[in-house]
Amino acid sequence: MKERLTLVLFWALVLHVLIAVTFIIEPPFLRGNRLAIVYKKYLLPGPFFKDSQIIDNHSLILSWKINGAWGVPINVSNEDFARYHARLNPSDLYRGRLSYMLLLKLAKADSSVSSFKNKRGFNQLKQFLYDHYVPDEADSVSVRIINNQAENFMVRTDSVYITFAR
Amino acid sequence: MSLYSRFQAEFNSVLSDTTRDPLPIAILCKSLYIFLFVKIIFLWPVLSDSDRYFPFEFRSLIHHILYAPIKLAQVDLRVFLISILILLLLAVILKVNYVTSVLIFWLSFNVSRFAYPLANGSDYVLNLFLFLSIFLSVTPVFKSKALREKQFIISNFAFLFCKIQLALIYVLSGFDKLTSPAWQSGDAIYSIVNLEFFMNPHLTIPESKTLYVVIAWIVILFELSFPVLIWFKRLRIYALAAGIIFHIAIIFMLSLPDFGVVMILLYSLFIPSRINRAAYASSLR
After folding, report:
1. Contact B157, A120 (CB under 8 A)
2. Are residues A10 and A82 in the same domain?
3. What is the pLDDT of residues B63-87, one digit of tens each?
4. Is-contact B92 B34, C-beta < 8 A?
5. Nearest to A51 among B169, B172, B180 (CB)
6. Chain B CB within 8 Å of residue A30 CB
7. What is the pLDDT of residue A109?
């Protein structure tokens, strides 16, 4: 009985390694396959720093107008990240990741202002900015969404300006 | 004796060892529990915002069962988090056992889903090994000798499986980079250096294509050689040292503390029992 269990486990392990190697090599018929995605997400996490994931880099510059005067713009995406490096508290990093994810929902280099404003994520981002940055007395808000694409040893920058009433 | 027979005999002897030292398993599991404890403490101030802007939606009956703890988190986040922290503290104090292992995996999985906008590679790695840790446990032990033997066989198998899975994670990343033109040319390092929200702003890396190529190939070679070298006793210590340096560099250069720490903690899988025991004894002194 003991021998049978070890034999089953032995072949289960061999099979597992073969399946894992197949998913690592990823033949064309497996690309985009749901099973492959789930397997890689939960059983074989990675690959980390895949080239397609490291090209785009978004940031958000925010300013608002009070009594007819625009304030000094702030780099919302950079604030928490800079704070993390100043005091090494991972909570700052997580907060920065949250605002970055809100931005990521929207950011696409080829998006027009009108398409931005119609996106579901735009209202979420606006609410986030109102909750954390824009004071109640502001009457207008301006955001600049920047997309830097670092590829082929050069950086290409695109940006979208959106101004709206508070 | 054929290679297959020798390999299987070695496999049988590893799995049938009922006298193995329980300390490596305790160190692995408890270090993961402490890691999760600390991670939750740092996530705590951001979780209510995460739930507000990215609320978890229950879309099916399976969701209602699998993610039941998230319902509690949505009603009272503090009770949810305090309950997990208490469980983790208990698990660190108690022997590694099936009940706490299952609960911790389930709750950790729920935390990751609840906070999915904040999740990164470390969460997937952590949850995978917390899941495998369920099978590492041998407490409570069966009274019947036959069942107890099977319990140890499964535990030993899970320990070996953890080692293989850690090695495969490196193979996957290394192979992906090896076949990527951007990594081969060093362009990927240029992209990473320009990632404003990863690169440490206190560091300056000189803009040099040669340097980028050298760094890219060091990463590729490390990720492909580590999962091979780690199986050789004489080379293991060097592989582990290189891995620790590699992950410390990721922690400081790429601002990914959780990912680097969880990978280093998993190296305890490969540390010989006598070193684990000495480290454990000195930590109690």
Report:
1. no
2. no
3. 999 999 999 999 999 999 999 999 9
4. yes
5. B180
6. no
7. 46
Q: Distance from B273 to chain A by nearest Cα, in Å?
A: 24
Buried b / exposed e over B221-239, threshold 16 CB at 10 Å, is ebbbebbebbeeeeebeeb
pLDDT at B213 over 70: yes
Cα B250 to the center of its chain, rounded Å: 15
pTM for the model:
0.93
Residue A24 and residue A92 in one domain = no
Q: Is residue A135 part of a domain?
A: yes
With CA atoms as reference, the chain B residue closest to A149 would be B191
ipTM given for this complex? 0.91
Q: In this complex, do A81 and B16 lie within 8 Å of one another by their Cβ atoms?
A: no
Q: A7 and A33 share a domain?
A: yes
Is B169 within 8 Å of A44 when comparing Cβ atoms?
yes
B192 touches chain A (CB under 8 A): yes
Q: Which residue of A has its CA nearest to B14?
A: A6
- Per residue in B225-234, pLDDT (tens digit) is 999 999 999 9
Residues A142 and A108 in one domain: yes
Quick one: chain A helix, strand, coil %, rounded to 5?
A: 55, 25, 25
Beta bridge partners of A161: A144
Count of structural domains, chain A: 2
The answer on A118 and A154 residing in a single domain is yes
Domain span at A32? 2-43
CB-based contact (8 Å) between B180 and chain A? yes
